[in-house]
TrEMBL record:
It comes from Candidatus Falkowbacteria bacterium RIFOXYA2_FULL_47_19. Gene3D superfamilies: Spore Coat Polysaccharide Biosynthesis Protein SpsA, Chain A (3.90.550.10). GO terms for molecular function: UTP:glucose-1-phosphate uridylyltransferase activity. This is UTP--glucose-1-phosphate uridylyltransferase. Residues 6-268 form the Nucleotidyl transferase domain.
Amino acid sequence: MKKIKKAVVAVAGSGTRLLPATKAMPKEMLPIVDKPIIQLVAEELVAGGIEDIILVTKWDKKPLEDHFDHSWALENDLRQAGKEEKLKEIVALAEMANFIYVRQKGPYGNGTPILSAASLVKDEPFVYVWGDDLVKSKVSFTKQMIDDYNESGHLQIGVQEVERDQVNRYGIVKLKEGTMRIEDIVEKPAIEDAPSNLADFGRMILDQDIIDVLARTKLGKGNELWVVDAIRDYIKGGGEFYAKKVEDGEWLTTGDPLNLLRATLKYASDREDLKKMIKEFSRNL
């Protein structure tokens, strides 16, 4: 069984729910306190053993590339000012992994980034990530998933329970009774048709079999290409696919103003230099 060393990260979305902030800035570069969302995602991946991070982008995502590159002028300024800790932090961004950039081509939908990067992960397992989903946990969730995969060989997707009135926003899974094996998975079902309130989110371990199924998957809801539809077809064809819950942590989406604020407050509340002030601010508010 091949080791997982690559991750494909979908970052080609436009972030329309966060306009006008995302008019000239990719949504993945919006800050969670003082780190952009995409940096927190990359740190999780690297902590899980990922060496090659493949970002599937579009024309307006150059700030992502700049963020993970060396900034010689800034580094020189920090060096001249004697700010060694900040210098180390900035240099480490460019050296934390091998960053590879691929332009997304194909129909709209969260399955398209996989096909855009397919030649770079051919015949090997990989982690697939949505670039605006965070998992805040004591141990990197990517590491949790890869450790599980190394032990079981299971393809898998991250899941978390959501309120029943929110199931129509996510892919919803139905588990085989008494197990974490997925029996069915439905993209954004009507509330009355949802098989559970267990929502999938942007952390998956996939392989060539899923790519092959996805390549022949028809466009689904909203005339988009959904990775969930490919997983469903894979299961119907006899493949095994499992759900994975976060241990000692939680999934935090950042794709809309309320959830972006919620994620920011949760991260800020864990920082020694901020948590006291955050609590006082919350009480006053």
